[in-house]
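The methods section describes the discrete structure representation at length, but only in general terms. Since the whole study asks how a given chain folds, the encoding of that fold should be made plain. An entry of this sort, consisting of the sequence and the corresponding backbone structure tokens, reads as follows:

. . .
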Amino acid sequence: MKRFAAAGLFSIAAIFAANAQAAGCMSGAAVGGVGGHFAGHHALLGAAGGCAIGHHMAKKRQRQAAANAQRPAPAPGQ
């Protein structure tokens, strides 16, 4: 039974990552799947939620990095 759950988790995560080109989806899905499994055997729901949250956090980091790159560097001596 655990093998089916692990295979299902991996296949769902791979589908999400392939369709959405989602940065952070695979790691989020893995964490969400484990959390969902221990919180009442809802690994697939946890994987889907983890993928969404992981993608959201990765996009947030990308926007922050882009904003920091556009910020001018301080003048020397200040």
